[in-house]
Amino acid sequence: MTILAIVVGGGIGATLRYLLGLGLAPSTPPDFPWVTFVINMVGAFALGAVMTLLAAHRLPGPWGKPFLSTGLIGGFTTWSHFIVESDQLIGARRSAIGIVYLVVSIVGGVLAAALGARLAELRVGHPAGRRA
């Protein structure tokens, strides 16, 4: 059942990523990979919150973690595309944008995850620092 939870969650997450990409792509400037950046920041925030809720035992059943974290959020976010886009920017002699993208994505992802975790902690009444 765990594998099924991951498969279903991953399918939903990847589909949501695709649909969000379709919606964001026409409105974003072409000089920065905004779509992947936004998707990964939203995913980092969500994963921080989900892991905190899991630690507080606020998510249902034994398949909550694999469905939500590995499946849904793992299927939604895209580390590989982020790395390829960074490499393409650097290879296209747009190194400054590529390096900024790398740094801002990593630092922003950590901050987004921390914010998600903190907001979840406030929701469940746990003090900061008691995460999974």
TrEMBL record:
Membrane topology term: Multi-pass membrane protein
Domain of life (superkingdom): Bacteria
Principal location: membrane
Activation/inhibition comment: Na(+) is not transported, but it plays an essential structural role and its presence is essential for fluoride channel function.
A Pfam family: CRCB
GO MF annotations in UniProt: fluoride channel activity; metal ion binding
Chain sites annotated for binding Na(+): 74, 77
Any one of the GO CC terms: plasma membrane
GO BP terms, alphabetized: cellular detoxification of fluoride
Keywords: Cell membrane, Ion channel, Ion transport, Membrane, Metal-binding, Sodium, Transmembrane, Transmembrane helix, Transport
Listed transmembrane segments: 37-55, 67-84, 96-117
Localization per record: Cell membrane
Reactions catalysed according to its record: fluoride(in) = fluoride(out)
Family: Belongs to the fluoride channel Fluc/FEX (TC 1.A.43) family.
HAMAP family found in the cross-reference section: FluC
Function: Fluoride-specific ion channel. Important for reducing fluoride concentration in the cell, thus reducing its toxicity.
Name the UniProt record assigns to this protein: Fluoride-specific ion channel FluC
Organism per entry: Micromonospora inaquosa
Lineage start: Bacteria, Bacillati, Actinomycetota, Actinomycetes, Micromonosporales
